[in-house]
Specification:
The protein has 4 helices and 5 strands, in the order E-H-E-E-H-E-H-E-H. By secondary structure, the chain is an alpha/beta fold. Strand 4, helix 3 and strand 5 form a beta-alpha-beta unit. Helix 1 packs across helix 4. The protein starts with a strand and ends with a helix.
Length: 128
């Protein structure tokens, strides 16, 4: 079992496609949800730094792709997990180029979320 750590949960627009996935991560982590407009504000740079970031984008549009790229620049040390409904080879190649740690495609199982969390924490050097 992973100890409670802080995870930043980012979504571009209101959607319930990731609710089950969010619940899996919330079992093991304290989630702080923000929307895309809060990324470069004090909400994001609050005193409690996240262990990793989850970006939940049902459909990735140019704005979301740009946001993830911009997010990697100031926070390269934070593993970024991309959760989406529509994966593609092009998306996977792009994600590798900008340094996305992992991509989860819905529907996500509890085991998938747990494995992904463990991998992200290990990348940060955080012991379980």
């Amino acid at each position: 079992m992973i100890r409670k750590t802080h995870v930043l949960w980012l979504q571009a627009r209101q959607s319930d496609f990731e609710n089950g996935t969010r619940e899996f991560f919330a079992r093991e982590h304290t989630l702080r949800s923000i929307d895309a407009t809060d990324v470069f504000t004090d909400l994001f740079t609050a005193s409690i730094q996240p262990s990793f970031i989850c970006c939940a984008f049902e459909y990735l549009l140019l704005g979301e792709l740009s946001l993830i790229g911009e997010l990697r620049r100031p926070y390269p040390h934070l593993p970024l997990i991309l959760i989406t409904k529509n994966p593609s080879t092009d998306l996977a190649i792009w994600a590798l180029r900008v340094g996305v740690h992992d991509i989860l495609c819905t529907p996500v199982t509890a085991q998938m979320a747990d494995n992904c969390s463990r991998s992200a924490l290990k990348a940060r050097g955080i012991d379980e």
